[in-house]
Predict the 3D structure of the following.
Amino acid sequence: MRTKIVAGNWKMNKNLEETEALLSELSAMLPDSTAEVIVAPTFVNLQAALAALQGSTIKVSAQNMHFAESGAYTGEISADMLLNLGVDIVILGHSERRAYFGEDDAFLAKKVKTAVEKGMKTIFCFGEELEDRKSDNHFAVVESQLKNALFDLDASAWQHIVLAYEPVWAIGTGETASPEQAQEMHAFIRKTISDAYTSSVADGVSILYGGSVKPGNAAEIFSKPDVDGGLIGGASLVAADFVEIIKAI
Ligand code: PGA
């Protein structure tokens, strides 16, 4: 059985007090669920989030990290710094990192390598842009993102990988991939991994869908056999909405 996951990517939202308030609201409302629930506040509030969630089943993730051990990388955060705090989950390759900070697959491959070597659960994001889909290039784009960022990993490293397919045209736009489009792509991703590794590697990896998941569309998207949960942006900032999405798993 693959792990079902609902992860909230808070992006650059919520100050310290707002972080604590949202987590206390969320903890109070958290339904019993078989899904692993993860929240990713901004770096400066990770420690407060861990403190607020002591004794809770909700896990804390970082939104990014650097690939180097340590050193002259002003403004960056290392895997060891996160682990030292008690954060062992990281989101890498989000489309906003790719679009605004120039992170490409070769660069992300280094980050993923470090994260998995450190034993961190690595939520790797990827997905095509609108132009790729319009030109029917979306499968080729996704295949190349996987190949260039992940396929140098050993099969054993895949135990640490969670994939998040996020078509760029659906992120923060209110536009969602239809449940059929999500399923079609997730099945393609699993097949691509199976061809590059083995079917057991492919069957074991949780593939989340991300892009305008809301309480109203989550259940239908999550009902698809190759969709193992969601990476939620905007709707994860409102406790009641995030809870409804967790219930939809
Ligand atoms: P969204 O963001 O749910 O606001 O579309 C998803 C994401 O960026 O991970």
User: Anything to note?
Assistant: The chain is about 45% helix and 15% strand.
